[in-house]
Amino acid sequence: MASLRVVNSNLISCRLVCRGFVVLTLLLMFFNEVLIYYIAQSSWNSIDCKLENCTRLLLIADPQILGTSYDRSSHSPLARYDLDRYLQKSFERAVSFTQPHIIVFLGDLLDEGNIATAQEYKQYVQRFKRIYRNKQLTNFRMISAYFQRVHVPGDNDIGGDNGDYISNSNQRRFENHFMSEDLFDYDNHLRFFKINRMLLDFTNPDKEHNAERLRIGVTHAPLLIGGGPLLRAVISDLDPHIIFSGHWHESRIFIYPSTKVINFYENAVRHFDLKALKEQEHSYLEIMVPTCSYRMGKSKIGMGYAVLENYNLSYTVLWHPNRFILLFTYVFWGLFVLCSAIVYKMMTRCPFRVAKRQSVYSRVANIPQF
Questions:
Q1: What is the pLDDT of residues 20-70, one digit of tens each?
Q2: 115 exposed, middle or buried (CB, 10 Å; 0-12, 13-18, 19+)?
């Protein structure tokens, strides 16, 4: 009877420990996969519209949806799924928080767009549209008829990095899949110009009426920091009030013609008077938006959020949680559970073996002594 009680107590304690580990594992998954996005959102700065003439922009740079060519390891499907889900959850929170009128994608939408086959490219585009289209966004579009998108290509979309060849087919398929319904004018007030530094080209189809609009340049590669003939042509023909860029995966602010560069990593809102900056200071402003993908090796990742009221610009970054830290917690927790299981088994020495030894001892003890 004593041996049975020992076995039962060991089994009960083993079950309690296992249930405790299961509960803690579920809590860890809930924190890493759900709660962390709301915690990150709680630190974001809201920008209230003070005037009716208010336009909210959500700026997304370098998501770089993972492809299937560069990484063919056994865990690559899991890596693609995890990044897709991370981008989608971050996008859902950003859209819910900002309720943007316009979403601007600043290039490098795909990681292997420039080398993908036609079938692979189609699959990547489907994944991209599945990530950046959710229920909240669809409902918001039904409410507001003014919701629009703007896409510009990056070097990973069409080529051009380090002098790579840019084929006409890569340009055409990007335009067909992403740019066919893009915005040019918005609300008779804003005008978007797409600048392609890889091709040294930009759009300017209605030059005669540019002066009547607040002019916004969107480019993948930074423009003001590089100089050259393209910058001179953009300043001369477009004369933009503000330029948004990506590519470097950093959060920076450039002011031209000065060499002033501001590393913008604080959790704050910056305010700019675009009209005064241009007419009084004779300067040009460019805001570089950080990458929104944790796969780019940056510790600070996020999306840009800008609000335009007449010629007043308010800008902040919606910082996202560092996914690699969350993934490391899974590794550490798994190692802790494994080590705990080994230690527990060594301490208990398996209740069934203990019971067997105790039953043998009891039989030996019951042998009559002569």
A1: 889 999 999 999 999 999 999 999 999 999 888 899 999 999 999 999 999
A2: middle
Per the DSSP assignment, residues forming a β-bridge with 104 are: 59, 150
Q: Residue 349 — left, alpha, or beta (φ > 0 → left; ψ -120 to 50 → alpha)?
A: left
| Residue 292 near residue 303, CB atoms below 8 Å | yes
Give the type of residue at 336: F
pLDDT digits 0-9 by tens, 155-169: 999 998 777 789 999
Please spell the DSSP secondary structure of 244-256, one letter per residue.
EE-SS---EEEEE
Rounded to whole angstroms, how far apart are CA atoms 29 and 45?
A: 27
DSSP code for 281: S
**CA separation, residue 252 to residues 145, 247, 248, 316 (Å):** 33, 11, 9, 11
Q: Which residue has the higher pLDDT, 366 or 166?
A: 166
Strand pairing report for 190-196 and 185-186: antiparallel
Burial bucket for residue 99 (CB in 10 Å: 0-12, 13-18, 19+): middle
pTM here? 0.88
* Residue 284 bridge partners (DSSP): 256
Residues belonging to the chain = 370
CA distances from 64 to 76, 171, 276, 337 (A): 15, 17, 36, 34
Does residue 348 sit in helix, strand or coil?
A: helix
Kind of pairing between the strands at 201-202 and 260-263: unpaired
273: three-class secondary structure by DSSP: strand
Pairing mode, strands 284-288 and 242-245: parallel
Residue 189 tokens, joined: 């007030």
Residue 145 tokens, joined: 């008829």
For residues 164 and 114, the answer to whether their CB atoms sit within 8 Å is yes
Q: Tens of pLDDT along 279-295?
A: 888 899 999 999 999 99
Tokens coding 42: 């709680």
* Residue type for position 81: Y
